[in-house]
Structure formats: structure tokens, C-alpha cells
């Protein structure tokens, strides 16, 4: 039997009030949300939801919902255009079904399931029944970075999913899907309860619970990968190659991977191109730049030392590819992204 949230009605009323306050705040600011969305849709074919629309008063986590039992109509999304965010989103289905169209692929989330969306994921979401109830847990990039920069040494797929999203590395899939077991369900419910009760230190407690949640999701993701039949699109081999590249990104070559896994370089080159939709050299470059961003934001190391650590021999070449990727120089990136130094393994 799926666990229930005891005070769900109280929390839904609080979420409804929160939504009304959001609409009032937007109106008072003279900010035309519909106009912005319309202009972006016409120009780009999608719109981007910025942090400031949801995160106020210093909070790094915001929870809202789709659907509501007291409404006669389901909370549909009438916007025919997709959208993405400046933040991460987790969609948890408490009751019913949630429909998410991500990159043209429709994901029908059943009850007690969780989908993690990266900020880059262009999607449209909706419910079809007034009985459907979905909690959207929005998390700022800064909090995700704070959590996962400490978990890098684990080198798990969920960690890489978030860090690749943070540093704009091209992803094979911009979302992760999980069917929740009892432990995950109870943990997610406790996050929702903590958020809507809003007692002292609730944001800090939620952050601690998110660390536990992401750690358990990493375990589950790894377990699912190990149980996946090897013949399905070389899934096991791809996971092992991805992990090897992450561990040896500063020195890795196609030949070293081929020797390690006992395959020919030409076969691995075709496999990587097919699975990652980019050449091996581009994949390694993206990963090196991801780690360069991490060092720039979380350390005071001189840039030429960062260049050497991540595997580049030519500083000028590094500056060129970095600016092509991020549209700013390494110095500018450091100034705009510098955080308090964190332990970097």
C-alpha cells in the first residue's frame, strides 16, 4: 500500500495560497508573465522560466503542485509551446498520472514515481483528471552544485547527470525516471511535509533530506543499470566507458579506452558517436571543460594550473574552446560563478 501524507489537505491549501501570492507578486511588479512567454515562444519556439519567478526571500527550494481535488477541471497546461528552467525540477506523482512531453517524447508518470529534469530539458506537462495530484520540487542550481560537488568522488550516474546539467555538457537524456520504493516514498513525503509546515530551519532540513534522497537515487540508478540485460544497446559497456572517461578525463585517449576494454578503437569510436551523439574528442572536451568550470568556481587556483589539471597543454587553445562553449572567458566565468571554496577531490 502506498503511503499517504496525513495532512495532505492542509498542504494543498497552503500550496494554493502560495500560488495566489505568487500571482499577486507578479502583478504588483508590473511583470507581464504572459507577454514574456509569448515573446519567447514566437522568437525561440519555447520559453525559459527564470529563478526569480519562484525563489524569493533567499529560499533554494520551492514546491508547487499540478492538479487539485477541489477543482472541477484538471490543471492542464494550455501552452502549446515547451518551456525549460534556470533551475532543476523533480516531478513526484502522489496520485493519478502526470504527462510530460520531453523533447518530443511523452512520459506518462504513474502514481508514486519521480522524474528528475535538467534545466535544459524543453518540456510540456499536464494532467488529464481533476483527481491527479503531482508535486513539483524546484531546486536552484547553486544548491545542486553545493550537494554534488561533494559527491563527485562517488562517480555515480545521478551525480554526473546533475553536474553535466550544471556545466552544460551535452546529455544523452535530459531526465531520469524512478519508480519509488517505500523508503523513497517516505523520504519524498517528509520533504513535502517539511516544506509546507515551514517550521524553524526547514530549508536546512530539506537540504539535508535532499542529500539523502539523491544518495539513495544514485544507489537505485546503479542497481537498475546492473540488472539491465547486456544486449540492450550495449548499455553496460556504455556505463563503464562513461565512468572510465570521468575517472581519467585529463589523460584519456580512444586508444587507452580500447586497450582497457579490449575493443578496437574504430568500434568504440562508432559506439560513442551513436550513444552520445558526438565524437569522442568532443565528449572528452565537454567533460574537461565541466571540470574546469568546477575548479574556477570552487578554488583559487591560477587558471594556467587549472588548464594543466584538466588535461590541456596549450593555454591559448583552452581559452579559445572555453569561450566557444560558455561565451565568456575563464576569468569572466570565475568572477560570475565564484562560490565559497569547496573540497575538490
Automatic annotation (TrEMBL):
Pfam families: HTH_18. It comes from the Bacteria. Residues 239-336 form the HTH araC/xylS-type domain. One of its GO terms (molecular function) is DNA-binding transcription factor activity. InterPro entries: Homeodomain-like_sf, HTH-like, HTH_AraC, RmlC-like_jellyroll. Residues 5-32 form a coiled coil. The keyword Transcription applies. Keywords: Coiled coil, DNA-binding, Transcription, Transcription regulation. SMART domains: HTH_ARAC. This is Transcriptional regulator, AraC family. It comes from [Clostridium] methylpentosum DSM 5476.
